[in-house]
Predict the 3D structure of the following.
Amino acid sequence: MTTSEKIPEHLGVIIDGNRRWAKEKSMPSFEGHRRGMDNVRRIGEWCYKKGVKIITFYAFSTENWNRSKIEIAYLMKLLEKSVSGKYLSDLHDKKIRLQVLGQKERLPRSLQDKIAKAEKLTENNKSGILNLAVSYGGRTEIARAIKRIIEKKTPPGEITEDLISENLWTQGMPFPDLIIRTGGEQRLSNFLIWQSAYSELYFTNKYWPDFSENDIDKAFSDFSQRERRFGK
């Protein structure tokens, strides 16, 4: 890291292109998802080494429930492996806190149980935070926050932007400084839409399984050259 390089404190990543990567290589889509999850681990480790404190990976959206039952079942099993076993042990050894953001109640019971154990195990870790956005949608998150505020019978005059932020799944965390999307699309697709109001956006044509440490370095180099004025 050079002295002029800026590292985002909170990095958001929209994982895209797993299925297209597999199709172009004449592999089943499942293999694309598996390689993609392996890359979450590799890129996450590299980002923490670079100095990133919080990473939020968009792993499974609320819209992804419309995919085939077979594909969803496979993705749920992949997620189970990602919040347990050796990967969880490695995160815990490195004092990384693991959190899952989203509609946990919609997930299979076995996955819910593993998430609860992983979050409990790592809740006091202070070296960094790994967020997996699962059954996550930004609009759903905002609607949920408003419902929670209404349930507390908060007077309308006391409802502020800060209060809404405190009732989001990302409560207590700084908003993302940089959001990266792989796969060639240039949109947020319902990812952190409240939190990303002033995030820098970086789009790349590379499919997620091919996205490397060198690509992260290029993204951070680009981020370092941007002037963040926040409307000033």
Notes: The beta strands are 10-14, 54-61, 96-101, 128-136, 178-181, 200-203. The CA atoms of residues 36 and 209 lie 5 Å apart. The chain has one domain: 10-224.
